[in-house]
Structure formats: C-alpha cells, structure tokens
Amino acid sequence: MTSLPANPGTKKLGLVIDLDICVGCHACAVNCKEWNTGGHSAPLTDENPYGADPLGVWFNRVHTFEAGDGADGRTVHFPRSCLHCEQPACVTVCPTGASYKRETDGIVLVNAETCIGCKLCSWACPYGAREYDHADGVMKKCTLCIDRIENQNLPEEDRVPACVSTCPASARHFGDLGDPDSAVSRLVEERDGYDLMPEMDMAPVNKYLPPRAPARENPAMQAPALAPETPETEAEDGFLGWVDRMLSR
Amino acid sequence: MPDDIRPDDRYEHIDPSPDVSDEVKTTTCYMCACRRGIRVHLKGGAIRYIEGNRDHPVNKGVLCAKGSAGIMQHYSPARLSQPLRRVGPRGSGEFEAISWDEALQTAEDWLGSVRRTDPRKLAFFTGRDQSQSLTGFWASQFGTPNHAAHGGFCSVNMAAAGIYSIGGSFWEFGEPDWENTRYFMMFGVAEDHDSNPIKTGLGKLKTQGQAKFVSVNPVRTGYSAIADEWVGIRPGTDGLFVMALIHELLRNGKVDLEYLARYTNAHWLVRKAPGTAEDGLFVRDANGNPIAYDRNTDQLVDATQTDIAPAMRGSFPLHQATPGDGGAGGEAVPAFQLVLDRYLDGRYSPDAVAGETGIDADNIRRIAAELAHAAFEQEISLDVAWTDWAGNKHDKIVGRPVSMHAMRGISAHSNGFQTCRAIHLLQMLLGSIDCPGGFRYKPPFPRPAPPGPKPAGKPDQVSPGSPMVGPPLGFVTGPEDLLIDSAGQALRIDKAYSWDAPMAAHGMMHTVIRNAWAGDPYPIDVLFMFMANMSWNSSMNTSETIEMLTDTDPETGEYKIPKIIYADAFQSEMVAYADLILPDTTYLERWDCVSLLDRPICSADGPADAIRQPVVAPDRDVRPFQDVLIDLGARLGLPAFVSETGDPRYRGGYPDYLVHHERTPGVGPLAGWRGADGETHGVGQPNDDQLSRYIENGCFWSDEFAPDERYYKHANRAYLERAAKMGWIASPDPIVHQLYSEPLQKFKLAGQGFGAVVPPARYRDRIVEAFDPLPLWYQPFEDDHTDAQAYPIRALTQRPMAMYHSWGSQNAWLRQIHGWNPLYMNRKTAEDHGLVDGDRVLVESPYGSIRAQIALMEGCNADTVWTWNAIGKKRGAWNLSDDAPESTKGFLLNHLITDLLPPKDGYRFTNTDPITGQAAWFDLRVRVIKDDSRAADIDAEATTPRAPGVSKAPARSRYGAQFLPKSSWRRKRGGSPS
Asked: CATH number, domain at B464?
C-alpha cells in the first residue's frame, strides 16, 4: 500500500467554495471538463455521449438538494470534487503507488502510467471524488489543474484552476490553506469555513463556506413596520396630507 | 502485506508548463443570448479550450457552463453538412443532398415569384438569432410585413411594458446597481436571464453583505436558492402582490413625490369626461404640451415647465379659458390622483390579495416596510456633480437604493404586460429608476416611451416588387397605427398590430404556422424560418402544429403551407418539416455582430458592441445564414443589396455588410472605429479597416460614460446630449416615465366606440378591460375557460442554467447534466395526491395528456408543478439515439398548452396577452394523476432518420486525446476524438 509523504511541506493547495453564493450553474463543472479533457489527464472520456445513459468522466460535479422543510428550507447547490485530503485513504489504499500526495503542495494525484485500474481508491474515498475512465482503464481525478497553476505560458492571473477562473459568481477560491495568512485561510476564518464530513478523518484541505444568515436576521436590515391600520380619519385630511406638500420640479 | 510503497521515487513526470495552444483567437460566445467575449485556444487546428475574455467589459473573464461546452456544440454530430431538398413526405425526414447553386436557385425562384406578385405571401421569421437588424431590414427590402423574431413568444411583455412605461426594460437592457443597491427584488426570473451578469452581480451583492435579496418565484431553484427571502408566489398573481405593495406604500406616504413630479407624468392633468372621446386623455395646450395645475400661481400651465409647483391630487375645472380645453369643459385630475384612487382601494390591501397570491398578508406588509426603509432611510449619495435636463446643477447624485429585475415568470402570462407595468409603477413610486442603488438603463436606452418608428405594412406600404417604407416592427401609439384593413381585419399573417394584439411590438411568431395553415387572414406561399424550432419546443400545441405543417389540401394534394425554407446549423426537429434546408455554420465559423441596432451588450456604465470572427473554417458544405440572406437579397434585386448596376452590393458577404452598410448616414451595424481615420465612435462614415480594429481589440468595442453621465439618464443633460450625438435618440429631450399611459387609454376609448378606428364588436370588451392606462390585474385567461377544480394545478417551465437560451440539448456534456426532465411537485401536494417521489404520472390539461415522472421538492408553490423546458426531444432528432432519455423519459409540456382559447361568440382568440400577443405559456392548468400503465407507445413512436451528410454519432468520445504527446498510449486508445 502507498505511503503519504514522510515530510510533508507546509503548503496545502486547495479550494474554498462559498455555498452562500453558488447558484448551481455548472460553469465550474463544464469548464473543468473542457480544460482537463485536453490537459494533463486527457481525455475525460464520454461513453455513449449521444445515446442512453451518457456517462463521462467529470472531476467536478454539482449536486442540488434541499435542506429543511417547506418555505423555510433551503435549496443547496453543492459542487463536489477531490478535497486533497491530508489523510487521504485513496492514497494509502493504492497497491501500486500510482495514487499519491505531492510532498511540495499536498495535491493528490494519480499516475496514469502505474495505475492498474483496480478502483480500490474510489471505494476508499468517502467523497466519491474519483472518476474511472473505462476507455483508458485508469482512475482520474481533480488535479487542481496541475497544468495551469504553475504554467509559465499563462498570464499570472490565469494560473488558478479552471473552475475558479470561470466561476461567474466568484464562489470559488484557490490558494494555500497551509498558510494562515493566505487570502483563502482568512476567508475560512472569517466565514467559519468547514470540513466536509470531518468524522471520516480524512482531514480535507478544501473547505466549504456555509450560507450566511439571511439578511432578515441582520439587525441592520430590520425595517420598522408601517402603520398597521388605515387611520379612521377622513382620508383627504389624514394620511393623504403628504400629497399636498409643495413640490417643485 | 507488501512493503509500503514510498511514492516519492515514483512521482510521475509532470510538465507544469505545457503549451496550451498554438494560437488564441478572440470572438463572441453564442451558446446563449448572453454573448460574452471569449478566447478560443486552437491547437493543431482543433479547439483546445474556450475561456472567458478577461478584458471583455461584460463577462470579465468568466464563462458559464454553456460557453464552456462550446467545443461539443461546435463538433456536434447533429450538424448539417450540405443543402437538402425534401424527397419524402413532410415529417418523414427523407431528403436528398443538393448543391448550393441549386438550393439558392430554388429559393430565388420561390421568393422571386412571391415578390413579383404579392410580397405578403412570404412569411420570414427568425428564432433566437441576434441579427435582427439585418433580417428586419431584409424583410422590409423584400416588401413583406410578415417578419419578426422570437420575441413574441419569449418576453415581449417585458420589452413592451418597459418601453411604453420607462423607455427601457429589464431583460438584458438594464441592470440593478449591484454596487449600491440595498434591496434587490427579482420577479419570475427563470434560471438565467441575463446570464453571467446576474450571477456576478448576485455574488458581489451577497459578498458585500449590505443588501437584502428577495426572489419572488413559485420555484426555489437557481438564483432563488441564494435569496435572503424566497416568496413562493402562485403563478400569474405577481401583479396583485405588487399592487398590494403599492397600496401599503401609498397608505403610509412612502412615495417619492419629488421624483414623480420631476421625472414622470404624475402631475399631468387627465381629462375626466366619461362617455366622450376625450375621456382619460391628457389635457394639452395649443402646442400639444400637457397641462398641470401650478399651486404657486393657481393656474393651469405647461406641465413640462420646471418653475412650477404642480398639484399631485385634486380636481380642477376646465373651461374655455383653459389651454387645450377647446370648449369641452368638464374637469381634470393629476394622473397621480388616479393612482391614489385605484390602489388605495381595499381590494388591493394585503389582506385582500393574500388568498389569491398565496402570500401571507403580514409578509406583504413587512416587505412593503422593508422597501420603504431601504428607499427612504438608506438613501445613497454619490459625490458627483451633475446637471439635469433643465440645466439645474446638483452637487451630488442621490438615489433610493431599491432595485428590481423581472423576466419570464411575469412575461409568460396573459396578464404579463400589465403586471410588468405594475412593477415599473412601483419603481417610479419609490423613485428608484436609474438612480444610485436602483435599476439602471443600459444604453442605447432610455428611449422615448415609446420611441419611433411605427410598424410598416399598411396597404399603401406594400406593393409587388417594391420595398416597404419602414420596418415591419415598431411601436404603435394608437388605433390609427394598427395594421388592419377597413373591416378591422389583420394585415399581417401573425395578426400582430391587429385588434388581436395591438401592441405586438415583437410580432407573433407563435401564430404564424396556424394562420398560414388556415389561410387566415390570407394564404401564404413561402414560410422562411431561421433557427426556430417551431415544430417542437418553440410552439404551443406542438402535436397540432405538426399536423398543420403536414396537412394537405384534399383537392390538390398540395401542402396547406405550400413551401417551407429552413436554415439551421443542426438537425433539429424542425428540419424534417421543411422542403428546402439551408445549412448554417456554427458560431465559431462565422462573422457576426452584436449591434447597438439590435440586442446590444452594453453595461449601465457605457456602450459596447462586438463581432464574431471565424476562428475555424467549416469542414462541411455549409454557409453562414447571414451570407446566404445577403446573397439572396442580391439575387432577388432588393434595392439595398444591389448596386446601381444591379450587381451584388456586398460581394464580401456579411463582413462586407457589417462595415459598409449604413442604416442612416454614418450609422452602421458597428459603432466602433468609424470614420476615415477609424477614430470616430458612434456616427461616422464606414471604415474599411473596422473589422481589423475590432479583432485587435479582442472583437469588441466599448466606451465608458463620465461619472456625471451614469445616472438619471432619462433626465441627465450630459447623458442625453451624448445619446443624441451617438444617434441613440433623436434629440436630447428628457424621457418622461409614463406612470399613466395615454396610448393604452386611446385603445380603451376605441374599444368604447370612440374615434375613427374602432374594433369589431367581438373585441370590444376585451380591449376595454385590458387596455387600462394604469396597471391592473386580471385572472390569467385560462382561468376563464378551465375548470379550476378539474385542473387545480398550475404548470410552468424553466430552462436550466446549463442550457438557458442555448439551442439544442444534443451537447454531449450538457446532456449529461440534464438528459431528461422530471415533473417537479411540492412534497405536501404530492402527499395529498397520494403520490411519492419517482411515481409515473399522467399530466393532463383540457388540451392534451403526457406522461412524466415526478420528483418532489419543498421549494415549490403548493399549487404549482414545473419542469425543465426543451429537454424532451423528438425521437431521432439531434442525432440522438432512439433510446436517448430525451425522448424516452423526457417530455415537452408544450403538448398541453393550447395556442387558441375556446371559442367565444364563434371566434377563438390566441392564448396570449391581449395587449402584446405574448404567448401565455404559464397560464397552463393541469391535473396530475398516477399512471400505472406502462408507456408502450414510446417504443412505437416513429423515429426521424439522419439527414444525408449527418453521420452516425460516435458511441464514445475521446475529445482531447489528440492534444496528448504523440508518444502517449492514451492518444491511441479507441473512440472518436469528437
């Protein structure tokens, strides 16, 4: 079975995903697919693309579900991809060393040259983040766009994962979560970012930002009630008096 | 257990800096109507990656799911590859391939014959294309009034209500002031209109954390999912809800009277003379100016003057000494008095509307209080000096930071026009139009409410072999502008601008097939359509529409609609019902423009337009539709498309036209880099080098307003002068919000029998009821005909964000997100029906029945079911396999939606808004019953064969493998690269 880095560095690259503003548009999922099907993991094969049950490899999928009952509930759009865990069972379960965690930045990767397609890793991952490519017979997964984030052929501002670059709502952030002063770490701190399923002990690096409290719970946005009842007084002289203010154009 | 593997030694070789592409070309996305700037990476001649253009003023680098799936659209196996002529019966899908010469000769023969005899016998309608300034101009040159695009079945209620009220509209023509707003209300906005700007704006608004976002929508998906408050209103009742808000605000004096007096016609005097031809019209002086009562001088004065103190309520006697009285006498009241009279009435109180709208009265009161609080207690003040239309200088720009956006859920009802007007009235009362924090116009709006010109197509404007004088679409201001004959019958095939739909500003594409089939008001010879799936998801009453397309005259055996020409890039459902197919390119293979003359991509802070350039060459025998249209224009000798010697005027096709066509002197399709030196923007002579300049700039042109031009554009001198200079408006006069709409009153008077042009008897009640100069609410028409107990549930559709406004769900990636559509139902309602999640059901309306599978949800109005629209596909269309879920599990709600209402006095009105003719998709009522039968008929449904030149779709796509190094084993694995 495969070991984790003996001397992991302090750098922990990952994503911070803001569930307060994700509208579930799937831009991140499709742009990820588009970049990666021609990139390091190419291709992201689509089986039966124009038939029944089309089934493709996607590194990022958006799930939509509801939490709570009735009108007080919430519709949640939940993007899911590899969380680049600090204790990734998908790595330690790998019989060939194909699945590994990079020492330098903590990115969890699969070496397609040594993957034997046994799928143990996908069984081990509690998040369902691994994607088996039937055509290639190997496991594939989110690389945090390993071929973008340090790519000297791209302008500096584009050296982020495709999902982050394309998100119309700016709900996705990329950075070093091992650095407490990084923008992403501060965001997690400010917004009470949380681990997905911490009970699985995977210590995921990616964090999710929970929905903010609705504005109606914000005291600054409380509006005093208008008059509860129409005054009994004659309308002309009573509550319509304001209309007779002297106006100028 | 083997020894642990230490992967440190086995790290794969990773190239962190691969070459992304050989070449990057900019162009403009066309995966939907959002039309954002994109950068297309090409590698080895194939498309490697499409990304948002960071420099582009609208999307600033972001790109949605559709735009990101452009590769699969471009390489779709459903693409047509050559011109086709039908050989089997219509609907059989049997075609033979023909040459372009033959195809164009056929079209020329058909169209030439029509033009020489009766140009009206061409009905030329286009779908969601963005070249309406070309297509409308072409139709006008051809000489037929029978032209429109898809707006009539999309959102003309929003466009028309906005234009007639405030000279601008929601949609993509305006936007909330995302930076400054403190309260944002969104009404009936489906998942994605307009696309990226709303997502970006909502992200900004919520991240800033200073505003409340309220979504009024029967369904809690998409944007509504992240709203601070979701108001799950009953469909079709938004107008009542808005009027209850207005009631509350008026009752409490929470109205911006200064704004009303300055920017609206609230103080204009309206004549009260019931039973006369003058009733409800503005009192005007000898110069035609409206009159107000000046409280400074106690005189009736010109209401447009600025040095007056206008009365906002009261009643004022008129007599011969009154300007404009003309001896009529009687009395007049400020328009605002009529607002008070109507909305203070108890029938608009929150308690009175709670039952109908399904919104608790206390919630309505609270929302009204929040609107008032945001508008009047959280005023926004920007330290920018500006000058208003009258020359008054202001040292600050002050605004009421309440913003609104509304779209399809308001629009797609038979009461949509008036409901949209109610929202604009609410905005006016709050003083929140084009102010800091409010709704903001995007140029070239605002325009006069309404702007010119009027629609052409009157009998003396149509003659064989000649262009029409004027455009087929425009804005009417009274009955005299209607396109009707002396008997009151429609002159257009779609009956737009007739008594059926007097203000049908976008035409009525959804009525064309039925009317052409019925020969009502007259038979046509050629139906010519582009990019409009009218045999399927773009038609109401789909099944019967298909029958009409295939119906023949029993005597002659000829089709009732004799000839159908269709242009599309893909084998959509419509292809099988056409006789001649002109195959179009994809959006990455063509020149195109996003013009200020059409549907622009401006922001509130400045104008912008854009082009498409071909980034790859077509690998099929296809031609860009616009090139074909220009070619046909020359072949037919349309004056604007031929030179003085009769040769083609635009030999270079569409790009030649884009640069050299001038609609009026100096104004062409593109505003940027005009003039001899290419340094003039807006109005200037054509510049041969214009397209190169666009390409150098990333395929767009944009400009920014000075800070003092950005707000109160309807009354901002600097802005108005700029707009006049740019040719957006004729003169820098202020644009007055039409709180009270006189054009509507003119139609109402006609309905009452006054004036020279009056409707035939069967229209009168309907005209009198609907054409109210102040917003009103009435039950959706379906309720008048359909038994609410038998059909208790309203049914509506949305397009999902990943497909909104995008043509075709054959996209290999997007169909993996939405491959079929369940019928979504409120959980509790389902329980009351004895239904559980996943049940198969029959959905029935009085007009049809379909099978569906239900999915339960909490965030759905209890009296509403809904589904994703246009996921369901006809078997075999779009080159999908016969067992594709789009046709086996997916369904089209359109089958249940009637295009005609039941007969009334022997006449069937269309299922549309009576004012604009907007298709009332969402008026639908249904019942849902458990279906225990197995759907055997699905397997029996006929399939459509692939057209010649359309190859069998691959069983596996390995797109992207071709970009791997030649040595890679993965590159050699099986499967098609596309």
From this structure: 3.40.50.740
Q: What does the pLDDT read at residue B804?
A: 81
In a domain, A154, yes or no: yes
Q: Identify the segments of chain A with pLDDT beneath 70.
A: 228-239
d(CA B465, CA B460) in angstroms, rounded, equals 13
What is the mean pLDDT of the segment spanning B129-144? 93
Residue B774 lies in a domain: no
Q: If you count them, how many residues does chain B have?
A: 978
Chain A partners within 8 Å of B973 (Cβ): 135-136
User: Is A217 contained in some domain?
Assistant: no
Domain count, chain B: 4
Which residue is closest to B334 within chain A, CA to CA? A243
Tens of pLDDT, residue by residue over B492-521, are: 999 999 999 999 999 999 999 999 999 999
Task: Please say which residue of B441, B470, B490 terminates a domain.
Answer: B441
For residue B813, the chain A residue with the least C-alpha distance is: A30
Task: Kindly compute the dihedral angle of the four CA atoms of residues B310, B313, B314, B315, in this order, to the nearest 10 degrees.
Answer: 80
Same domain, yes or no, for B590 and B497? yes
| Judgement on whether residues B147 and B176 belong to the same structural domain of the protein | no
B577 and B562 inside one domain: yes
Is residue B697 included in any domain, yes or no? yes
Predicted confidence at residue A234, as pLDDT, reads: 46
Q: What distance in Å separates residue A37's CA from the closest CA in chain B?
A: 5
Quick one: closest CA in B to A31, which residue? B68
Nearest to B961 among A43, A76, A100 (CB): A43
**Tell me, what CATH number does A197's domain have?**
3.30.70.20
Residue B732 domain flag: no
DSSP-derived letter for residue A3 is: P
Domain that holds residue A186: 13-212
Contacts of B666 (CB under 8 A, 6+ apart): B674, B683, B684, B685, B727
Residue B903 maps to which CATH number?
Answer: 2.40.40.20
Instruction: Tell me how far apart the alpha carbons of residues A245 and A243 are, in angstroms, rounded to a whole number.
Output: 6
CB contact under 8 A, B370 and A221: yes
Render pLDDT for B415-426 as a digit per residue (tens, 0 to 9).
Answer: 999 999 999 999
Residues of A in contact with B340 (CB under 8 A): 240, 243
What is the extent of the structural domain holding B960? 950-978
Tell me whether residues B801 and A31 touch, CB distance under 8 A.
no
Q: How many domains does chain A have?
A: 1
Å from B656 to nearest chain A CA? 34
DSSP-derived pairing of the beta strands B316-317 and B299-302: unpaired
CA distance B600 to A101: 49
Instruction: Please say whether the beta carbons of A84 and A106 come within 8 A.
Output: yes
Same domain, B803 and B886: yes
Q: Residue B1: pLDDT band by 50, 70, 90 thresholds?
A: very low
B659 and B532 within one domain: yes
Pick A75's closest partner by Cβ from B15, B212, B859. B859
Contact B142, B121 (CB under 8 A): no
pLDDT digits (tens, 9 = 90+) for B686-713: 999 999 999 999 999 999 999 999 999 9
Q: Are B723 and B709 in contact (CB under 8 A)?
A: no
Closest residue on chain A to B885 (Cα)? A52
For B841-863, b where at least 16 C-beta lie within 10 A, e where not — what string?
bbbbbbbbebbbbbbbbbbbbbb
Q: Note whether ipTM > 0.90 here.
A: yes
Whether the model pTM is above 0.90 = yes
Q: Smallest CA–CA separation between B360 and chain A, in Å?
A: 12
Residue B357 lies in a domain: yes
**Alpha-carbon distance B93 to nearest alpha carbon in chain A (angstroms):** 19
Q: Are residues B960 and B914 in the same domain?
A: no
**Residue found by looking up tokens 């992967």 in the block:** B7
**For B731-778, what is each residue's pLDDT tens digit?**
999 999 999 999 999 999 999 999 999 999 999 999 999 999 999 999
